[in-house]
Amino acid sequence: MYQIVLIAFLSLCAQFFLPWWTLAIVAFAICYWRSPGAGWAFWYGFAGVAIVWLMYVLLIQLRTDGVFVGRMSELLFKANTPFLPALATSIVSGLVGGLAGLSGFYVRQATTTQIINRIS
Amino acid sequence: MRYTKAIVSILLTVLLVYALNRPWGTIPAFAPLLSPFVGFWQNAETDTAGDEEFTLGGTTEPVTVIFDDLAIPHVFAQNDHDAYFAQGYLTARDRLWQMEFQTHAAAGRVSEIVGDRALELDRYNRRLGMGFGAEKSVKAMMTDARSRESVEAYTAGVNAYIKQLKPSDYPLEYKLLGYAPEPWEPLKCAYFLKYMSGVLALGADDLNMSNVLAKIGPKATKELFPDYPFHEDPIIPVGTKWDFKPVAIPKVPTESRPVIDPITMNWPEHDPAIGSNNWAVSAQKSASGYPILANDPHLTLSLPSIWYQMQIVTPTMNVYGATMPGAPGVIIGFNKRVAWGVTNVGADVLDFYRIRFKDNTHREYWHDNQWKPVTRRIETIKVKGLPNVVDTVLYTHHGPVMYMAGQQPFAKNVPIGYAARWIGHEESNDFLTYYLLDRANNHADYRKALSYYGAPAQNFVFADTQKDIAISPNGKFPLKWKDQGKFLLDGTNPADDWHGWIPAEQNPHVKNPPRGFVSSANQSSTDPTYPYYINWQFAPAERGTRINERLTTMRNATPDSLRMLQNDNLNVRARWSLPVFLPTVQTQKLTGEQKKAFDILKTWRYNNDIAEIGPTIYTEWMRQYMNGVWQDDFPNTDSTTLRFPSFDRTLELAEKDPAAQWFDNVKTPPRENLSDILTQTLQSAVDSLIRLHGPVGNAWQWGPHKATKIAHLARLDALSAVNVQIGGGNGIVNATTERTGPSWRMVVALGSQPKAYGVYPGGQSGNPGSRNYLNMLETWRTGKLNELLFLQSPQDKNARIRQKVIIK
Question: What is the residue-averaged pLDDT of chain A?
Fold first, then answer.
């Protein structure tokens, strides 16, 4: 589970200075380094990345009066639901993080032997 | 297998990142937009922090900016350069996207942002000569040291803001449309002026009037399209003596008019609701013994708000008012001694000349009995995602030949093969007028300031603490023979050229008229005794008439009396026409619902208030009535476009000649008269309202029916104010229609210290994520005004002061 914390921390740092998609590289690298299975890798990537986006979004949303988020919900999803943008934001980032994590795991599998995998 | 899984998952990841990182058609790049680090979340503004101090390096001395509770900046600078620098910086901070988008639109550069769906719009603006005109204007503003300094400092201020932006700081619209701001330049200030001229001075009926003339002949044309209206109360009061000796007025050429080429075009949707009100009451009429001035310019309401309030204080001025994002200085406002405002004149400053080319190479054209060279201007339009489009525009001495035969015109009132002669092509230094007004002390300063003004021509109203009030329809007016430009003109005949200008000091003006007030509402500038031709048609007389009748009876006026007049909802058109129309309706032919609607009109007090049903029925009826009277006589066909006579002329006909042949529908066997047409159209108007709203009831109320919308400039409903419940309407003093209305309301009471009030439908911030995006809307909607904080020094104490910022 510490992978989630690592992904969250490192992707947070990366995104302060680098483009948003660096979160995929972080999730990939961490899951390449250590992940017990495909499902776990996807989950680590998804959760690690999405937690950061969701927390940041909630922080912003709670500090403002919600009118703007409602307007954006209307604009992007044709429905004025204040939690839709936050949800969509988390899912979009989570999917990218999850897929990147999954890729990390599979690449690790493809490039190292089964024995090493078992030991780690 | 292991490799396949690795490759497939990597491929999927890369594809997803790629798909989320780029726009798809009109859908923006999703991930950067949703990212809380760089996306729209970053535009959600929290409440402003405490006092700030930051260094930009563009000012010679520190500038202090006080923000009040409406986020309006009050700039205190130690010299003019620093003040304009701060104005540029602060305006950009609140309105950068709007400033850039409007100037991009004027420059024909929208395709760069949205792709080829804006190509025809861009081509139109370029062929109209927006760039040609802006380049000339920027030259003029750079020749005068005062306007040059203000434009350059303003530009530096805007750029100081742009320079510090990271992509995550970009205004929301850049993120939605996926582009970045570019540096500001003085040319963009000129483009902004052209944008305003485009909004206010591009009306042209020349083609349709020529088609009318060809169809019904000169006698009937003169009869149906008179040069002065039936109902009128001109801006310069009737009886005002002209205190000048006019220059020689060009003679009407006797040669026959050119034959018009058949042109396939539809009548353009001219918006008669774009106008404005302004007035000033004299010291004798006011309770305080000092003049009071009011102004409300009507435009197509949009967000971010059209205007931006600001107070600017330097050793040379202390001015407060409405500025326009993209222009230095205050446009409508007041200082300690004077107040001024503007409404549109609507002069005939766009004419079309039929061009005869020597041959198909279009290298020479015939004028004044000789072949003259055509110049070419290459317009390169960048199109997002597509190769550049190169367009060659032919220029004669008249102006650009907007469309050659075979090219599809974008705006339908432009004749193919005709050159456009437009005031927007003229060199003028309009900023200088505002520069001088901002610093004016008295009537003489006002007159001097006005002499520099070019376009779009405005009715400048004025009042000062020396108790003078004045008004002047003012701008560069071409010197023409009477009605020159009512019809298409002959580009080969020098007699059809513009003959110079009406001398600026001979523009119509009046100071302290005996009636004790001055006013304008876009109606005729003068009565027919004015020696020069300005236009043959102006906005209808209703608003002006109502304003003048209320001002005539007004005593002991206060700012509140003027505010109430700005919100007057009386429908003068209905008051004039219903007593003529209702008695002629054949009530025995009406069904139950139609009769109900008729009875509502009978008891209606002609007020366009939110909850009234009368205005809904009246407006729809009159729309159908005008069609019913004129559609058969002036049909738009594949080969000709025509226009209808005015409502004013139609009403005159109904009063004086109800049996006129024009009321007969020539498409039906029986001979109809006024009564038949009124009855038929009332029936069909009620029927269409039933289809729209069901049986007569609350759904018919004017407020919900009109459903005023203040649309975001990028036409995004989610960022607009929709279904705003407010009364008024077209031709009403409170001129709020479905899309247009008072874009700024201001009342200034002069005195030892000016007391001023104002509001606009929106807010100071252009950011939809700010609390100040629409915070003034409710005040505007309910007809109230905010007091405008007129500070004397940055140390002034006031409960409404929220923040102090020092710019170094």
Answer: 84
The predicted complex's ipTM stands at: 0.91
Place of tokens 């009342």: B747
Nearest CA in chain A to B33: A89
A85 close to B (CB below 8 A): yes
Name, in order, each residue with C-beta under 8 angstroms of B534's C-beta and a sequence gap of 6 or more. B345, B347, B348, B473, B477, B508, B525, B526
What number is the average pLDDT over the span A47-61? Answer: 90
Supply B788's token pair.
């405008």
Comparing alpha-carbon positions, the chain A residue that sits nearest to B11 is: A103
Which residues 6+ apart lie within 8 Å of B346 measured at CB? B200, B201, B203, B275, B457, B522, B535, B538, B539
- Please report the domains of chain B, with CATH numbers, ordered by start residue: 35-568+751-793 (3.60.20.10), 572-706 (1.10.1400)
HSE at residue B531, side-chain half, CA atoms within 13 A, is 16
Q: Which structural domain range is residue A92 located in?
A: 2-119
CB contact under 8 A, A20 and B717: no
Specify the pLDDT at position B259. Answer: 58
* Total domain count, chain A: 1
Pairwise CB contact (< 8 Å): A24 & B13: yes
Handedness of CA A20, A21, A24, A30 (dihedral sign): negative
What are the tokens at B116? 């080829």
Rounded to an integer, what distance in angstroms lies between the CA atom of residue B286 and that of residue B516? 10
| Residue located via tokens 């003959």 | B499
Q: What is the DSSP string of B592-624?
A: HHHHHHHHHHHH--SB--TT-SHHHHHHHHHHH
In this predicted structure, what is the pLDDT of residue B381? 94
The answer to whether B761 and B710 have CB atoms below 8 angstroms apart is yes
Token digits of residue B336: 């300690």
pLDDT of residue B262: 47
Q: How far apart (Å, rounded) are the C-alpha atoms in residues B173 and A33?
A: 40
Query: What CA–CA distance (Å, rounded) separates B268 from B273?
Result: 14
Interface check for A15 against chain B (CB to CB < 8 A): the answer is yes
State whether A75 and B719 contact (CB < 8 Å): yes
Please name the residues in contact with B732: beta carbons below 8 A apart, sequence gap of 6 or more.
B542, B543, B546, B568, B569, B570, B571, B572, B608
Q: What are phi and psi of B464, to 5 degrees?
A: -140, 175
Ranges of beta strands (E only) in B214-369 are: 276-281, 292-300, 302-303, 308-314, 317-323, 332-334, 338-344, 350-354, 364-367
Low-confidence ranges of chain B (pLDDT < 70): 1, 48, 255-273, 404-416, 638-639
Q: Is A33 on the interface with B (CB under 8 A)?
A: no
DSSP B557: B
On the CB side of B251, CA atoms within 13 Å amount to 3
Contact present, A82 and A117 (Cβ < 8 Å)? no
Kindly identify which residue of chain B lies nearest to residue A85, measuring between CA atoms: B34
Burial of B660 (0-12, 13-18, 19+ CB in 10 A): middle
The span from the CA of B298 to the CA of B277, in Å, is 8
Burial annotation B329-351 (CB, 10 A radius, 16+ → b, else e): bbbbbbbbbbbbbbbbbbbbbbb
A105 and B11 in contact (C-beta within 8 Å)? Answer: no
Q: Is beta strand B801-807 parallel, antiparallel or unpaired with respect to B52-54? A: parallel
- β-strands B364-367, B370-373: how paired? antiparallel
CB atoms within 10 A of CB B665: 18
Measured between alpha carbons, how far is A108 from A111 in angstroms, rounded to an integer? Answer: 5
Token digits of residue B680: 């038929």
Cis peptide before B704 (omega within 30 of 0): no
Per the CB < 8 A criterion, the answer to whether B86 and B93 are in contact is: no
- Alpha carbon B430 to its chain centroid, in Å, reads 16
pLDDT (0 to 100) of residue B450: 96
| Minimum-distance CB partner of B20 among A28, A65, A92 | A92
